[in-house]
Amino acid sequence: NNMEEGKEKSILFCLSGHGFFDMSAYDAYFDGKLEDYEYPEEAIRKSLENLPNV
Fold first, then answer.
1. Where are the domains of the chain?
2. Cβ contacts of residue 25 below 8 Å, gap of 6+?
3. DSSP three-state, residue 25
4. What's the EC number here (predicted)?
5. If DSSP codes are grouped into helix, strand and coil, which group holds residue 36?
């Protein structure tokens, strides 16, 4: 038990609106209508170049 051991526990979750706009994506997913998409390597490279050093 974390409390007995004096440890803290974090719970991470994402809250992003009410989901109305996601419903068509869920329908497409469950109906098997989503297509695989391979993101272009060049776009990935360009995006990574703009990441800050942390």
1. 20-49
2. 34
3. helix
4. 4.2.1.20
5. coil
* Alpha-carbon separation of residue 17 from 24, 29, 43 (angstroms): 15, 20, 28
Where b means 16+ CB within 10 Å and e means fewer, 19-45 reads eeeeeeeeeeeeeeeeeeeeeeeeeee
Can you tell me the mean pLDDT for 20-40? 89
Secondary structure tally for the chain: helices H, strands E: 2, 0
Token pair listed for 20: 């109305």
Mean predicted confidence (pLDDT) in 9-34? 84
Q: Rounded distance, CA 52 to CA 31, Å?
A: 39
